[in-house]
């Protein structure tokens, strides 16, 4: 089969010779076991003798270890070495699962099934397994015919949708940096490719839509779906200590298809944007990418338009930790964000308005206030930054300051102006920045949805992809804070 000549194939399946080699290792089901190891998790060993409750196990290098019987876990026969589906294992214990995943990862086989689940290990390098030619290999194939791959799972969902006339959903989960977003993007790109091939000529076994319309080169819905990524990432992703491009929100993307399998429309729901990041960053982290992108000079006049004339490190809200990400060029990234906004057909005004709001927050973070002597009332300590923020928001500076210093609140049936001390003003400014950012993000998602909401093609069913972080033990407090923010 000519699949084997594809540069990606070696990262998908072992050759027959390699498999034979793997499977020819000596094995004795009564003797070969896995034993716990502090560094490796589990290591292979061979039981030499058993006395009472204890096994004497010989490990690599000939060392003998005395291990409690109940801590020894059964080893699978070599025919299961680097198995593609772990639900086939005779012994489905922790050590066998870890060994199988590790052995496959050692050969850069990053996808492994465990029954219905597809386990992915982040390769941290670009493998040629997401190319058009690889996508074409998986189109219209049964899962069992092909090696484990996200495309196979996606294709199965696609076929089930068309054949059973049912909506489908995929859950992509894992801890931060595991690769959720990368894989979600590949799923979307795959559906876009399948949807497009459907329009062009179809996938074996699925009826094709008849169309007499002449083909023209234009921005397709598939392109637009893919292009929502740079925009959502610019505004919703940031560098964290675990991941240089960490999504700080969860999302559920629904791709609607016509009954012929053509992409009909798409919509996105978002959850739990981490608002606190807009005003505070932990060591080693950054605020949302867009703040640094607008400062990158990709648009040479932009900084002047946004009145950003201080060094980046002087914008307190976004400069509490890192300003740059190794290997990432904010200027180039801004180019991609800007291009994507245009592909999504945002108007120039909409784009610049988003930049203005982002810049306004940078100015807001520099507004200074002082306490009036012997009064529980704060007052501005210079209004230059407030002027800049207000001009970006398009509001009057005095009115904006009044809202921070003496906000109008309702007491019973009456409206009164409440005095604010310096701390209260400080919190109000932060809360305003977080609230505005969150609303802007909501607007951006809504705007993407409007663009992706195609009226022309009737929708039949959808495939939903949920990209959301699992619970990270270390981050429970942060997650609670995000949820309650
Ligand atoms: N399949 C892959 N191929 C190559 N690199 C990958 C792959 N998956 C992930 N990576 C790398 O790992 C990084 C982190 O992946 P990703 O952003 O998808 O993680 P995540 O699970 O969405 O994390 P977070 O929850 O923090 O957003 C990516 O920026 C990319 O460099």
Automatic annotation (TrEMBL):
GO terms for molecular function: actin filament binding; ATP binding; microfilament motor activity. Residues 28-77 form the Myosin N-terminal SH3-like domain. SMART domains: MYSc. InterPro entries: Kinesin_motor_dom_sf, Myosin_head_motor_dom-like, Myosin_S1_N, P-loop_NTPase, SH3_Myosin. One of its GO terms (cellular component) is myosin complex. Pfam families: Myosin_head (PF00063), Myosin_N (PF02736). Residues 81-485 form the Myosin motor domain. Keywords: Actin-binding, ATP-binding, Coiled coil, Motor protein, Myosin, Nucleotide-binding. Gene3D superfamilies: 1.10.10.820, Kinesin motor domain, Myosin S1 fragment, N-terminal, Myosin VI head, motor domain, U50 subdomain. Signal peptide: none annotated. GO terms for biological process: actin filament organization. ATP binds at residues 174-181. PANTHER family: MYOSIN, MYOSIN-11. Belongs to the TRAFAC class myosin-kinesin ATPase superfamily. Myosin family. This is Myosin head.
């Amino acid at each position: 089969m000519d699949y084997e000549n594809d540069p990606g194939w070696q990262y998908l399946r072992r050759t027959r010779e390699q498999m034979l080699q793997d499977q020819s290792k000596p094995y004795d089901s009564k003797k070969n076991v896995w034993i716990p190891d502090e560094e490796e998790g589990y290591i292979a060993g061979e039981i030499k003798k058993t006395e009472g409750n204890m096994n004497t196990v010989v490990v690599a290098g000939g060392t003998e270890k005395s291990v409690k019987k109940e801590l020894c876990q059964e080893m699978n026969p070599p025919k299961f070495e680097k198995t593609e589906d772990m639900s086939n294992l005779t012994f489905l214990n922790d050590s066998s699962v870890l060994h199988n995943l590790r052995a496959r990862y050692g050969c850069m086989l990053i996808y492994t099934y465990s029954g219905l689940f597809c386990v992915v290990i982040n390769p941290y390098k670009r493998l040629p397994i997401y190319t058009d030619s690889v996508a074409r290999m998986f189109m219209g194939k049964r899962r069992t015919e092909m090696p484990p791959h996200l495309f196979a799972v996606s294709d199965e969902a696609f076929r089930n949708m068309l054949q059973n006339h049912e909506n489908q959903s995929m859950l992509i989960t894992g801890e931060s940096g595991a690769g959720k977003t990368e894989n979600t993007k590949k799923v979307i790109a795959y559906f876009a490719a399948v949807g497009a091939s459907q329009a062009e000529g179809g996938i074996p076994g699925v009826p094709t839509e008849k169309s007499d319309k002449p083909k023209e080169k234009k921005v397709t819905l598939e392109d637009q779906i893919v292009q929502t990524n740079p925009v959502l990432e610019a505004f919703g992703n940031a560098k964290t200590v675990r991941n240089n491009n960490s999504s700080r929100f969860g999302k559920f993307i629904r791709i609607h298809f016509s009954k012929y399998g053509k992409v009909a429309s798409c919509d996105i729901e978002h959850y739990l944007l981490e608002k606190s990041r807009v005003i505070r960053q932990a060591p080693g982290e950054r605020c949302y990418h867009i703040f640094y992108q607008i400062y990158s000079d990709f648009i040479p006049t932009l900084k002047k338009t946004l009145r950003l004339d201080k060094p980046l490190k002087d914008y307190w809200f976004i400069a509490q930790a890192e300003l740059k990400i190794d290997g990432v060029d904010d200027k180039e990234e801004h180019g991609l964000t800007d291009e994507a906004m245009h592909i999504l057909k945002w108007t120039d005004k909409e784009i610049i308005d988003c930049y203005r709001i982002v810049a306004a927050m940078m100015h807001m973070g520099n507004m200074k206030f002082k306490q009036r002597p012997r009064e529980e009332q704060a007052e501005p300590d210079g209004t230059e930054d407030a002027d800049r923020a207000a001009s970006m928001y398009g509001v009057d500076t005095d009115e904006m300051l009044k809202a921070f210093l003496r906000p109008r609140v309702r007491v019973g049936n009456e409206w009164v102006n409440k005095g604010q001390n310096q701390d209260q003003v400080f919190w109000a400014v932060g809360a305003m920045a977080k609230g505005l950012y969150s609303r802007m993000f909501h607007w951006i998602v809504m705007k993407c949805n409007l663009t992706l909401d195609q009226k022309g093609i009737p929708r039949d069913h959808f495939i939903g992809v949920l990209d959301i972080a699992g619970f990270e033990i270390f981050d429970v407090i942060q997650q609670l804070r995000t949820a309650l923010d």
